[in-house]
Amino acid sequence: MLLKDEVEMLRRITLFSGLPPAKLKLLAFTSDRVMYSAGENLFHQGDIGDAAYVILSGKADVLVSTPTGQLKVAEVEQNSIVGEIAILCNTPRTATIQTTTPLEALRIRKDDFLKLLADFPEMAVEIMRVLADRLSQTTSELTEARSRAQRAEA
User: What is the pTM assigned to this prediction?
Assistant: First the structure.
């Protein structure tokens, strides 16, 4: 994939869609392209957040550890970004990302990602929207799961 193709892929990510082409080119240039086979992990729940990943191709499961084992909570695919929460919140990774197909991604280092946010505050607003959507979805899913559990107990 050429640099111009990476820039085009970044432009498709809602988070980066408002950035000027020169900034997207710089972001693509400073990012590392990484390849994974099916069944590999981009990172593990609890790891230190050192980078975010833009999925260029392929699919992966978002897994969280529970007392009964790994639980799949979502799936990510092309044009998704993962790993940004740990970077933004300075917390350990909240989930494990495990590929289900061969996957290609751009690895954006924490320092580069945070510099982009400082240079483009509107990107921070978009991140808040994305995180708020995820939180809303998670809250709905937890509410539904709790209702099912209560019905099962009755």
Answer: 0.81
